[in-house]
Fold this sequence. Notes:
By secondary structure, the protein is an all-alpha fold.
Amino acid sequence: MSNINYNNNDKNKNFTIEGIPSNAVSIVDSVANEECALASLLEAQANLLCNAINPCITICDFIDVIQSIIRTLKTLIQKNNILENKLRETLNFIQKEGIGCLDYNEQFELLSNLNSVLESIGAEESSLGYLIDKLGKGVTNIASYCTFDDIKQVNNLVVTLMKLIVEKNMILLRKLRTVISLIKFIKGSEFDIFIKVKKEMLCTIKNLINSIFKEEKGLAELIFGESVKISHALKMCLNEEEISELDSLITSFIDVICDKKRILEYKLSEILSLLNTVGFSTCEIDSILDHIKELQSASFKGEFELSKLIKNNSKELNKFIYKECCNFHELNSFNICITCNLVTLLLNLNCGRKSKNTFKFDSCSCSNKSICKKLNNIISQIK
């Protein structure tokens, strides 16, 4: 793979669109086609991971596969940034010229092309969900024969990959918002062009919701894999320093999951705003609600896996402490700090996704009893 260095200013470079508005309409279609190609490439990365999910693969081979996917995803993000700028400048040009400068057929083509961009965003998000799902299955597969050093390396790579996925999600979210804002702008047209594309847009909205479902399902699988891996680590004879390292691994993983969950919530909010903009019948809205119900079930499954991860690890950490006969008070305080940190992240995930660090803890004034009560309440609600 060739190494191509892009100047940091390239991301913010303005792509001036010159010519007539009808040409800009065609550019929107070209962006949709390129995004669909990227979705196919993402799916290929997930298929690559499928080959890494078998009993014969070694830890080194699994690590090599993840590193390869990380390199590819970095390149895809660069391409996504360019396409985002291209789309935004094109739509800004159309909006500046005014929707009235396009005739009926051109307006219909523009709306159809915008719908194609939305479809491509859904396709990319679905591919990301597929990739996360296979990543989770891969982690589960190799967890039982990892050394502690392997666990640390795999965890760092998983977090790195998830951060790249979150970065790509942010680009797609911005693109989604840009397209929806122009659709709202087109709504003010003197022509009633939405009637001709309502059926296609309804299908697109369902696909976008299904893409969130696939990502939530993938996150549940990944959290389960992390739980298996960490549980395996806790069965090892770990010293105090290794326990501290394990805490850092868990918190960094949960933190990136929180970031991912927040983006999915923003995405769903934008999709629902699009639903209101286009305007659908009661029957059509009911069909969309069926997809949202499936999404809720996937979301609850992911959060239940997360609660089990925290609950089980807290129990194991307590066992570790009670086996130690020296520095008991120091170890006990250390354990409470870990538990508070994990529970804080869980509280943020369930109650404050849109406001990071909604809950904070103070290890000096921590009450283990009250923390456990909060944790138990959350777990019972998820169940």
